[in-house]
Amino acid sequence: xxxxxxxxxxxxxxxxxxxxxxxxxxxxxxxxxxxxxxxxxxxxxxxxxxxxxxxxxxxxxxxxxxxxxxxxxxxxxxxxxxxxxxxxxxxxxxxxxxxxxxxxxxxxxxxx
Amino acid sequence: xxxxxxxxxxxxxxxxxxxxxxxxxxxxxxxxxxxxxxxxxxxxxxxxxxxxxxxxxxxxxxxxxxxxxxxxxxxxxxxxxxxxxxxxxxxxxxxxxxxxxxxxxxxxxxxxxxxxxxxxxxxxxxxxxxxxxxxxxxxxxxxxxxxxxxxxxxxx
Lengths: 112, 156
Hints:
The structure holds 2 protein chains of 2 kinds.
Chain A: E1 5-13, E2 20-28, E3 51-58, E4 61-68, E5 77-83, E6 92-99, E7 104-110
Antiparallel strand pairs in A: 1-2, 2-5, 3-4, 3-6, 6-7
Chain B: H1 2-16, H2 18-32, H3 38-42, H4 46-54, E1 59-60, E2 65-67, E3 71-72, E4 78-83, E5 90-97, E6 104-110, E7 114-122, E8 128-136, E9 139-149
Parallel strand pairs in B: 1-9, 3-9
Antiparallel strand pairs in B: 2-4, 4-7, 5-6, 5-8, 8-9
């Protein structure tokens, strides 16, 4: 039932702007079934089962929220960056999702 | 009174049995996901998906970069990164895979303090464009990149 979320948050030099930024990486365990694929053996359609809402928070405040669909890969990986000015080491990044079956999970990490 | 109530609930549960369970299963997610745009995620072509998700047509912009491989050997996992750091006031970034059965992959809403850059892995059913739609300052912009998908191919 519980599907794990791995979160990593690290202050580092961001290669795009060459400035210090907080890098947040999120890896979620989830089948992300679209509802189109068929089971090869039984020929039965695998019902749709994917994450629909994703919330990433910094110290309890929304940072990045996302609505996802079945076109996102299995075990979704998402990363984004935040301004280093608003973040310090030890701050908490929490990530949670809800899927189309109403299941949910959450994970968190301290900023390193 | 209290007993009665409980009994009613119990009876209802046993009588309706499977029906209640199935009904709850169907209804619960919809109630939870009030903000999830079903019409947009169910749309069958890229343009109507964008229209439903963003409420308008985006204008092409050279300030957005779609980072994706030229050739994806495995369509199930295509790493995509959308870079709109040249733009100001970016509110959301949407990723669309043009030729998928349901093209809309994800809509990310950024709050202040988040850089206009998101990377994600998406599925691609066949060769086609990956379209990024960026909402900045209330306006819509887009850019795209063609990705060739060679499912089951040996590198091509």
